[in-house]
Amino acid sequence: MIASAPASSAASGWVLMSRKGFAAPKLSSSAAYALRNQLSSRRGLATAQEPYDLVVIGGGPGGYVAAIKAAQLGFKTACVEKRGSLGGTCLNVGCIPSKAMLNNSHMYHMAKHDFKKRGIDIGDLQLNLKQMQSAKSSSVSKLTGGIETLFKMNKVDYIKGTASFQSPTKLDVALLDGGNTEVEAKNIIIATGSEISKFPGIDIDEKQVVSSTGALELDAVPGKFLVIGGGIIGLEMGSVWSRLGSEVTVVEYLGAIGGNGMDTEVAKQFQKILGKQGLKFKLQTKVLGLEKRDGKCFVKVEAAKGGKQEELEADVVLVAIGRKPVTEGLNLEKVGIEVDEKGRVVVDSQFNTSVGNVKCIGDVTFGPMLAHKAEEEGIAAVEYLKAGHGHVNYGTIPSVVYTHPEVAWVGRTSDDLDANGIKYNVGKFPFVANSRAKTNDDTDGFVKVLTEKETDKILGMHIIGPNAGELIAEGVVAMEYGASSEDLARTCHAHPTLSEAVKEAAMAAGGPGRKAIHA
Ligand SMILES: Cc1cc2nc3c(=O)[nH]c(=O)nc-3n(C[C@H](O)[C@H](O)[C@H](O)COP(=O)(O)OP(=O)(O)OC[C@H]3O[C@@H](n4cnc5c(N)ncnc54)[C@H](O)[C@@H]3O)c2cc1C
Hints:
This protein has 519 residues and is an alpha/beta fold. The protein has helices at residues 29-42, 61-72, 88-93, 95-113, 129-154, 212-215, 232-243, 264-276, 332-335, 371-387, 414-419, 435-439, 468-480, 485-489, 499-507; strands spanning 2-3, 52-57, 77-81, 157-167, 170-175, 180-190, 194-196, 209-210, 224-228, 247-251, 280-282, 285-293, 296-303, 309-314, 316-319, 323-325, 358-360, 399-401, 406-411, 424-430, 446-452, 458-465.
């Protein structure tokens, strides 16, 4: 329930907006609270005697999905979000704006470098970056607004403010419109997500030295764009600005790009393809610091193993070295909720924290920092509350890099299987032998299926190629149902489609005697 509480200062009275958008006179705090409670009770909110069944802290993909699911299951539910907009990192500054920029920069690049040979002459081509940015913002606002509508449809109360624990069943919320309120709940789910990890000694100004958030907002194409970190976000942002005309260099400490979980063979092929597109890579290279001089950035680097130092000049530097959980200000210590040495909230297999009625999901706890993982956890956590059981299969969570070609994978890698002494077969099929890819003249990459030698069960699928992010769903479903490569190979696939490459890789995966038809 939302209980009325005294505002912290007189200045925190709420301003109600008239329908034409003019500010109505300020109400005193107490009058505003009274009015709010009146409006709340009209909308059927919980009363002082009736706390919420569930309050979710954070309106990202984990939190908003949990809130909707809970309401659908009959819980009186509220979601507290401090951003002023629902959808979390993903919709506001992550998945969605980055994919909008990736999609539209790809179209621009195609129009500039590829259309002619397809018989499309478009004369004088211009980049209108302002319009591209506004198309991105429009996708974001349509989607974030859509979640507000879903909240209304499902009767989830949306509380705009910053929550902190007063007790395991009581939250203080500093409201965005001013003032504070108390919210009581029988159960609470923490879904506060993650934020960028800073590079020690490098200040992010979001203009010249940017995080992914600033990299999505640049108002001019940088001459030289330097990316610190060759993981998914660094490569996606590097691709965007390379397509729009920047000279892009990616500096990565490790010996391969793509980060955790990317198959070594795929990572090598990926680097080669991005290299052909113009991105430069400095692998096994350590960043030592950054200096701004004469309006430029100079990044000092040396070989990871030590050696000669060099300075790399850039107009804009993107720091993309990872993300860390957000727990600051939640007052977790006060109620005894445990966090680990990396700042992640510690949970058991049912998402329970160290405090009985408080669960935690998404980026702020263990596991890959992915929107769909957070959503799965949101649903499962609520199902545990309602029914005592839930389901997330961490072995079948796909990962996708939305460059062109895309890279996608699910399950285990060859390296992982080798390291664990598991015997396996490999089936591979190149897109250059797939009729649709050839028709589209988009043939970079391959599908690789890994199967257990003894049983033919699919253990992993790795795709680099057009639409890999969509195609990987086939591997996910197959693995979820414990399919063998023969099951997949005997499944009829429409022709001509890229998905036939998945079928053919499966045809080749079952060991001696099993072969693809077209390669
Ligand atoms: C550039 C970029 C691109 C990405 N692309 C992809 C992609 O393509 N696919 C993918 O799966 N993932 C992608 N991600 C990762 C994805 O965004 C996250 O994994 C996902 O958003 C995590 O969801 P969440 O609900 O756990 O947390 P978040 O989305 O971070 O949401 C948490 C919310 O909690 C709110 N909050 C925090 N503290 C409080 C508080 N005390 N009170 C009230 N509210 C609070 C925050 O304001 C935030 O809105 C990307 C991330 C970035 C940065």
